[in-house]
Amino acid sequence: MEHLLGQEWEIFPAGGATGEAFIAVNNDEKLFLKRNSSPFLAVLSAEGIVPKLIWTRRLENGDTITAQHWLDGRELTHEEMNEENVAHLLRKIHQSKPLLSMLKRLGKSPLLPDIMLENITNNLDLEIQSISSIQRALYFLQENLSLIECDDKVVCHCDVNHNNWMVTKENKLYLIDWDGAMIADPAIDLGILLNSYIPKDQWGSWLERYGVKLEPGLQLRMKWHVLAQLLISIQWHKRKSRLKEMDILLKNLESILE
């Protein structure tokens, strides 16, 4: 990769699960490099949702390398997730026609609740299925499946953790790490964000800043999708033998069911 930039550049791994991200440094200039990132990145950059894409180059082996401006900033705190700019940026993402068009061109189909529930049920091992709160959650998902239809399928980030919201020194907000993006009910992002960061008595005001009202139908859809995502995460942590994290998620599951 060094020959793309020149010998004056130093390149370091940027961490992450895939090992495909790097940091390139030349004096005061700093780039974020990624191998084989999705063409979706170009649209995210054009929409101002991720740091600006500078160039894309193809290697002799067919791999592509993208370079973005290094983000000189920090992740949001839990408390900052309640700020107006977070609601506005998420609304912008959910309303973006270019993002939706690109995901469709990349072959993404809408994530439908019945398919999601079938996949969850098939992937839960017997030990997880024997847990009382898991059984209650599955019952809730099945009983309410016909009530959560949503015609408004949008681009969802699907991992709106505060670690993925980055703000620069100039107060420019970005949402990064789009590997799990889906075409789905916006209640997926909204439910996860509100349940994780916003006191329940403030959900209405947060959603007003986002641009919708807290109605019973939206509440049901958010609860459905949060429970579904929790079941997926609980099984994933168990497979990774991350039992402490799994127990925390089980407690979250019980609190939502109550």
Mean pLDDT: 92
- Shape by Cα distribution: globular
Number of domains: 2
Strand order of the largest sheet: 1-2-3-5-4
Oligomerization status of the protein chains: single chain
What is the alpha-carbon Rg in Å?
20 Å
Largest sheet: 5 strands, antiparallel
The proportion of residues in beta strands is 15-25%
Sequence-ordered SSE layout with sheet pairings:
Elements: H1 2-5, E1 10-13, E2 21-26, E3 29-35, H2 40-46, E4 53-58, E5 64-69, E6 73-75, H3 84-95, H4 97-105, H5 113-123, H6 126-129, H7 132-143, E7 154-156, E8 165-168, E9 173-175, E10 182-184, H8 187-197, H9 203-210, H10 216-239, H11 243-257
Antiparallel strand pairs: 1-2, 2-3, 3-5, 4-5, 6-8, 7-10, 8-9
Helix pairs in contact: 3-9, 5-10, 7-10, 7-11, 8-10, 10-11
Verbal overview:
Pfam families: APH. This is Phosphotransferase. There is one protein chain. With 258 residues, the chain is an alpha+beta fold. The protein is built from 11 helices and 10 strands. The protein folds into 2 domains: 69 residues, Phosphorylase Kinase, domain 1 (2-Layer Sandwich); 183 residues, Aminoglycoside phosphotransferase (APH), C-terminal lobe (Aminoglycoside 3'-phosphotransferase, Chain: A, domain 2). 45% of the residues lie in helices and 17% in strands. Strands 1-2-3-5-4 form a 5-stranded antiparallel β-sheet, with helices on one face. The longest helix has 24 residues. The relative contact order is 0.12.
